[in-house]
Amino acid sequence: MAEGEVVGLNALKWARFIIPGILIIGGVAYFALFLMPDYCTEIDNMNQTDPITEFSVQVVGDSLFGADADGCASVSTFMSLRLWLEVEDNSIPGAMVDDGDEGITQQYVSGDWNWTVINGGANDIMPYCTGNDCDEVLDSIITDSGEGLIPDLVETAQNDGSKIILIGYYSVPKGSEYEPVILEIEILNDRYSEYAKANEGVYFISLKEVMSPEETPELYSEDLVHPSDDGHFAIGEYIADFIIDEHKKETGMWFR
Questions:
Q1: How far is CA 50 from CA 44, 53, 61, 126, 178, in A?
Q2: What angle (nearest 5°) sits at the alpha carbon of residue 11, between those of residues 9 and 17?
Q3: 126-146: average pLDDT
Q4: How far is it, in rounded angstroms, from Cα 33 to Cα 12?
Q5: Residue 185 CB neighbour total at 10 angstroms
Q6: Contacts 24+ apart (CB under 8 A), 140-146
Q7: Structure pTM?
């Protein structure tokens, strides 16, 4: 056999291994970039078309924000697309306020934030307050006098120059597993609201203004606890519009 033919056969043998390997690697890369559940084409497009970079927003909290939602369906994503800047979402589904190094207060990343959006407390209340005295749990989060882990977090963020939005929980539908602790959730909402009124630079948003079981049942997921994707959209738009309106009060305009 001629030398050229031997070389050609060897090249073909190697190609049998190399070409499939290249295709596999390329396929994995494509999946990782474009088909992973948390990939959002709209955010990618936004980041390539002159997003706002002189303004920053961070979110910390629990599953209300839907950080594990597929694609573009999280609250922070809808906020990002409305604000036209990528919101930093450090919220973790299932997170509690009073949980040591795993608590919501530890999600906060110090930085030059214009706004920090905070929620939390329902996961603290649910396991411990059904049929039991809840004062200790509530007071660890925020007391009547405005002390506790959430006020400490607010102070930390304000020291970084950030304004604060405290998010109050919405009402849950009948049959929700959170029905037994409605009163405790209301106490928490009231304490957040009173704290915001008493502290400059702290604002309170009640999600009861966004959704209710009677008027907007489609904004709830089938588990009767979390927002649906439409609920995430409504919440994200509402928070983003609040931030835009507050900025306009100070400057007379938004960036875009």
A1: 11, 8, 29, 43, 43
A2: 110
A3: 93
A4: 31
A5: 21
A6: 140/97, 140/98, 141/97, 141/98, 141/188, 141/191, 142/188, 142/191, 142/192, 142/195, 143/191, 144/191, 144/194, 146/191, 146/194, 146/195, 146/198, 146/199
A7: 0.86
| Mean pLDDT of the 182-206 span | 98
Query: CA-to-CA distance for 213 and 171, rounded, in angstroms?
Result: 7
Measure Cα distances from 64 to 44, 68, 194 in Å. 24, 10, 21
Cβ contact 133:175 at 8 Å: no
Residue 29: pLDDT over 50: no
Total length of the chain: 256
The torsion angles phi and psi of 164, rounded to 5 degrees, stand at: -125, 140
- Tracing tokens 């839907």 back to the chain, one arrives at 66
Which residue stretches of 33-177 are H helix?
41-47, 75-83, 122-129, 135-141, 149-159
Selection from 3-17, 21-35, 175-189 with the highest mean pLDDT: 175-189
Angle at 221 between CA 234 and CA 174, to 5 degrees: 105
pLDDT tens across 220-231, in order?
A: 999 999 999 999
pLDDT digits (tens, 9 = 90+) for 80-111: 999 999 999 999 999 999 999 999 999 999 99
Residue 34: is its pLDDT beyond 50? Answer: no
Element (H, E) at 203: strand 202-206
Greatest CA separation found in the chain?
A: 93
Q: Which run of H or E residues covers position 164?
A: strand 163-168
pLDDT value of position 28: 41
Q: Which residue has the tokens 């409504």?
A: 234
Phi, psi at residue 222, to the nearest 5°? -65, -20
